[in-house]
Design goal:
heterodimer, A: 713 residues, mainly alpha, 28 helices, 3 strands, elongated, B: 100 residues, Helix Hairpins, 78% helix, 0% strand
Chain lengths: 713, 100
């Protein structure tokens, strides 16, 4: 280990602990976890993640003391083949530390939350033993995410990129033998496979981009690539950036590869919050920001990126309006917000994109975790209601557990605790969660002065200055954002309970609500990171060390005013539709009554899954079957292997070798030798007759012969 | 002085008698005696030639032959005794267990 950059003081030598602290936690839980209590397992995992956060803070402080100069800490040699010189180097600069802080900070809060959440989740699903596994995966995720954000080359980034993809797969399929309602099914594992496979398509693009990069620019290391890119042909850079966009579309759930993210909600809620909202899915945004110097070389590619993001933002926002599953709404909202970020970085507003990434991590994690709290509350209420029916009041813990088991055996009615149509009126039963959810909603909707307002406004402002089309797409998306969040609030927390479960819902314990309060605090004040006033722009100045050219735009009251009015109008509209006359149990969604087919389209995700199924999955399955049956089995196996190869071989061995060479050559020689020996022995044994006198006679005859010869010669 | 030819002829006759005895008789003792006869016919020839060429070499050979014959008889008779113990017979034709 040595310092790549000279003259640095500070805590940079701690950089490897970003990865090794979570790995250590993982190993402790993996090896000794079976003897730990649940609290102990959760504490170890949280401390491991917390250690990574601490290291991130120390690195940030050291970097700040170092005037933001990039520091590269080489840990190990990785691949050295010819011109390919890859090391495991930690890159500490203002961009990577920003990501580290978000990942480990939000990650640690979610670890703590998960102690409470998984405690109940494993009990609702009757597999307490899986508690430890969850934290092992979660720590692995933090380690992989750290590799991703701290890598100093595209290949190291790719290692983390694939690593977080794996963790995503493992955690979406955490309840792999169930579906989201807890019934035995392969639905969850199918969701995991879908996420993994769709991401493979994106990674394919990323890999090709990497190959072209190495072929044309001769390196994977960020600085070397950027330096070489300036003299390279624009076509090459165009290819690299667009193929990278394919990777981004996969990981950050952009059109056309976003379809995996809604299904990824099959994972436990802390996973949805950590991986599928706050951190992993922002890796694509990070990648584009990291490659800022490549993207700024090709404005056309930038525009394509921005347009992809803006269209995704609007498209996903419209779907979110038609969803009933509380987590699905948030999932489409995440896609939409990721669209905002991608649009921002595509427009070259890297600071705005990163700013929105950070604030989004706060308020979307808050929303998801609050939604998890709501779901748990409803589940508790559901069990409570069942219990009240069966047990007629409390009869001690044993009885209660038995009643749980009975429930797990299955009552006729399947209850979906995620369905907003089963909720309603929960501001009374879950007041803390209600307020937390409210803060998250206001932040997401972009209401002053919550964090989302500042970051979204910065994106909109940038768009309004340079890209009017994108500005309008994003503004409409922002309108829908406020609308579906308003709809969610009215449906979940206001009105009357539409199901016994919601009526009996209970507030979550403090282990769940305290991390939420921290996130809520951050969602309120997160905007202070980059206030658009003279003398602030803190994040902008901080990222300037890495991104070099940063536009610090002042607050534009026109843009801010329009977006605020749009948001307020959307919330008012949602109140008119959902708040004024609350939905009653069994009633059809009021918007569906008014819009009919359009709402059904949104409800069914504009039939994109069906479209993909028809144009990709079905032909793919057909081709696979054709290949398997006709090509592989009939042609390759039956004809080529059985007839041609095996037939020739059999003929050769049977006729040529067996009959001629073996039977008539080798066998004949061996048998002939044996017959000669036999004949000889049969003949010669007659001489050995056992009569001494005959031997004596032969001796005599021999003597006579020899003597006769000697005499007569 | 008896001519040497007579000795040689007598020796040849004795040797032939011995050889025929070895080949025709089945009694081991008789065979032994026949062998002795053959040895002694050879001794006779040695002595006869020794006196003709005036050399003691032939007579020394005879001493060796007598000594070897004695040893041979000693070993041979011991063998015959052992064979008789197991077979209750000294018929050499019955000693054919090495027949091929």
């Amino acid at each position: 280990m040595h310092l790549a950059q000279e003259a640095t003081t500070g805590f940079f030598y701690l950089a490897p602990w970003l990865v090794f602290a979570p790995l250590l936690g993982l190993l402790i839980n993996l090896i000794f976890g079976r003897w730990f209590s649940e609290t102990m397992v959760g504490t170890v995992a949280s401390l491991a993640s917390g250690a990574a956060f601490l290291v991130s803070v120390l690195l940030t402080l050291s970097l700040s003391a170092n005037h933001g100069e990039v520091v590269r800490w080489r840990l190990a040699e990785w691949i050295h083949i010819g011109a390919l010189q890859l090391d495991w180097t930690f890159r500490v600069d203002s961009l990577s530390t920003t990501m580290m802080l978000v990942v480990s900070g939000v990650g640690t809060l979610i670890h703590i939350y998960a102690i409470g959440y998984m405690h109940e989740d494993v009990r609702f699903k009757n597999d307490v033993g899986r508690f430890r596994r969850f934290f092992v995966y979660l720590n692995l995720f933090i380690a992989m995410m750290m590799i991703l954000v701290s890598g100093d080359s595209y290949m190291m980034l790719f290692v983390g990129w694939e690593g977080v993809g794996l963790c995503s797969f493992l955690l979406i399929g955490f309840w792999y033998e169930l579906d989201t309602l807890g019934r035995p099914s392969w639905a969850n594992s199918n969701a995991a496979k879908k996420a993994f496979i769709v991401n493979r398509i994106g990674d394919f693009g990323f890999l090709i981009a990497g190959f072209i990069m190495f072929w044309a620019l001769g390196s994977f290391q960020f600085d070397e690539v950027f330096e070489a890119a300036e003299g390279a042909a624009p076509g090459v850079i165009m290819a690299i950036t667009l193929l990278m966009l394919v990777g981004v579309a996969g990981k950050s759930a952009q059109i056309p590869l976003y379809v995996w993210l809604p299904d990824a909600m099959a994972g436990p809620t802390p996973v949805s919050a950590l991986i599928h909202a706050a951190t992993m899915v922002t890796a694509g945004v990070y990648l584009i920001t990291r490659s800022a110097e490549l993207y700024t070389l090709v404005p056309q590619a930038q525009y394509i990126v921005a347009l992809t993001g803006a269209v995704t933002a609007l498209f996903a926002a419209t779907i979110a309006v038609g969803q009933y599953d509380i987590k699905k709404v948030l999932a489409y909202s995440t896609i939409s917000q990721l669209g905002f970020m991608v649009a921002a970085v595509g427009m070259g507003a890297f600071v705005a994109g990163m700013f929105h990434l950070v604030t989004h991590a706060f308020f979307k994690a808050l929303l998801f975790l609050s939604a998890g709290s709501v779901i748990l509350g409803v589940e508790r209420g559901h069990h409570h209601a069942e219990h009240a029916h069966h047990g007629k009041g409390k009869k001690g813990k044993r009885k209660e557990e038995k009643s749980h088991d009975e429930h797990a055996e299955g009552h006729g009615e399947v209850f979906d605790p995620n369905d907003m149509r089963n909720m309603g009126g929960m501001r009374k039963t879950m007041p803390t969660t209600y307020w937390l959810y409210m803060i998250g909603t206001l932040a997401l909707a972009g209401i002053v002065p919550f964090a989302g307002f500042w970051s979204k406004d910065e994106i909109l402002l940038d768009a309004s200055l340079h890209f009017p089309l994108i500005y309008w797409l994003l503004s409409i998306a922002a309108f829908f954002t406020a609308f579906y969040m308003g709809r969610q609030i009215w449906m979940v927390f206001f009105g009357e309970p539409r199901h016994e479960a919601a009526a009996h819902a209970e507030e979550s314990p403090r282990v769940i609500t305290v991390p939420l309060m921290v996130l809520a605090f951050l969602s309120v004040v997160g905007g202070a990171l980059n206030l658009p006033f003279e003398g602030f722009h803190n994040l902008g100045h901080w990222l300037e060390h890495t991104l070099h050219e940063v536009e610090s735009l002042p607050l534009n009251l026109g843009v801010a005013g329009i977006s605020t009015i749009l948001a307020l109008a959307a919330i008012y509209l949602s109140w008119l539709i959902y708040g004024r006359n609350p939905l009653r149990a069994g009633e059809v969604d009021p918007l569906k009554r008014r819009l009919g087919a359009i709402f059904s389209g949104a409800e069914n995700k504009w039939y994109v899954d069906e479209l993909y199924h028809a144009i990709i999955v079905t032909p793919f399955v057909k081709i696979s079957q054709f290949l398997a049956d006709v090509i592989d089995w009939r042609f390759w196996h039956d004809w080529f292997h059985e007839t041609v190869i095996a037939g020739t071989y059999n003929w050769l061995s049977n006729i040529a070798l067996n009959r001629y060479a073996d039977q008539q050559g080798i066998d004949a020689a061996a048998n002939g030798l044996a017959s000669i020996t036999q004949w000889l022995s049969v003949t010669l044994r007659k001489i050995q007759n056992g009569f001494v006198r005959s031997y004596a006679l032969s001796v005599l005859l021999g003597v006579v012969l020899i003597v006769g010869y000697l005499i007569l010669k | 002085m008896v001519p040497v030819n007579y000795y040689i002829v007598l020796s040849a006759i004795l040797f032939t008698i011995g050889a025929v005895g070895v080949l025709t008789r089945r009694n081991a003792l008789i065979i032994f005696m026949s062998v002795e006869l053959m040895l002694n016919s050879a001794n006779l020839a040695f002595v006869a030639f020794s006196s003709v060429i005036k050399s003691f070499t032939g007579q020394i050979f005879v001493f060796f032959v007598i000594a070897v014959a004695a040893a041979e008889v000693a070993v041979g008779l011991a063998l015959i005794v052992e064979i008789f113990k197991s077979k209750r017979s000294i018929d050499v034709d019955q000693m054919s267990s090495l027949k091929g």
